[in-house]
Amino acid sequence: MIAVVVVMATGMVSMTKGGEFNEKYGNRLMQARVYLQGLALAMLALAYFTS
Protein backbone atom coordinates (compact mmCIF):
# COMPACT_ATOMS: atom_id res chain seq x y z
CA MET A 1 0.00 0.00 0.00
CA ILE A 2 2.93 2.29 0.65
CA ALA A 3 4.15 1.67 -2.90
CA VAL A 4 0.75 2.75 -4.24
CA VAL A 5 0.95 6.02 -2.32
CA VAL A 6 4.52 6.67 -3.51
CA VAL A 7 3.67 6.01 -7.16
CA MET A 8 0.48 8.07 -6.94
CA ALA A 9 2.25 11.01 -5.33
CA THR A 10 5.05 10.89 -7.90
CA GLY A 11 2.50 10.84 -10.72
CA MET A 12 0.52 13.72 -9.28
CA VAL A 13 3.62 15.86 -8.76
CA SER A 14 4.84 15.15 -12.28
CA MET A 15 1.42 16.04 -13.74
CA THR A 16 1.29 19.36 -11.92
CA LYS A 17 4.81 20.30 -13.00
CA GLY A 18 4.44 18.91 -16.50
CA GLY A 19 7.51 18.85 -18.68
CA GLU A 20 9.62 16.08 -20.14
CA PHE A 21 9.43 13.74 -17.11
CA ASN A 22 5.64 13.74 -17.21
CA GLU A 23 5.56 13.15 -20.96
CA LYS A 24 7.97 10.25 -20.65
CA TYR A 25 6.77 8.54 -17.45
CA GLY A 26 3.25 9.83 -16.71
CA ASN A 27 1.39 6.96 -18.37
CA ARG A 28 3.75 4.35 -16.91
CA LEU A 29 3.28 5.74 -13.41
CA MET A 30 -0.50 5.57 -13.66
CA GLN A 31 -0.33 2.00 -15.03
CA ALA A 32 1.98 1.03 -12.17
CA ARG A 33 -0.49 2.55 -9.71
CA VAL A 34 -3.32 0.40 -11.08
CA TYR A 35 -1.22 -2.77 -10.94
CA LEU A 36 -0.03 -2.02 -7.42
CA GLN A 37 -3.58 -1.34 -6.26
CA GLY A 38 -4.64 -4.70 -7.67
CA LEU A 39 -1.74 -6.39 -5.90
CA ALA A 40 -2.64 -4.66 -2.62
CA LEU A 41 -6.25 -5.82 -2.92
CA ALA A 42 -5.14 -9.38 -3.68
CA MET A 43 -2.85 -9.37 -0.65
CA LEU A 44 -5.63 -8.05 1.57
CA ALA A 45 -8.00 -10.73 0.28
CA LEU A 46 -5.37 -13.42 0.85
CA ALA A 47 -4.80 -12.19 4.40
CA TYR A 48 -8.55 -12.15 5.05
CA PHE A 49 -9.17 -15.66 3.74
CA THR A 50 -6.18 -17.22 5.50
CA SER A 51 -7.02 -15.79 8.89
Radius of gyration: 14 Å
User: On the 0-100 scale, what is the average pLDDT?
Assistant: 92
What percentage of the residues does DSSP assign to strands (E)?
under 5%
Poorly predicted sequence stretches spanning 5 or more consecutive residues: none
Count, helices: 2
Q: Kindly name the structural category.
A: mainly alpha
Element-by-element helix/strand order: HH
Topology:
Blueprint: H1 2-17, H2 19-50
Helix pairs in contact: 1-2
Which properties best describe this structure?
51 residues; mainly alpha; 2 helices; 94% helix
What does this structure look like?
This protein is mainly alpha-helical. It has one domain (2-50). The chain is 94% helix and 0% strand. It contains two helices and no strands. Helix 1 (2-17) packs antiparallel against helix 2. The longest helix has 32 residues, at 19-50. The model has no long low-confidence stretch (mean pLDDT 92).
Q: How would you sum up this structure in a few lines?
A:
The protein is mainly α and 51 residues long.
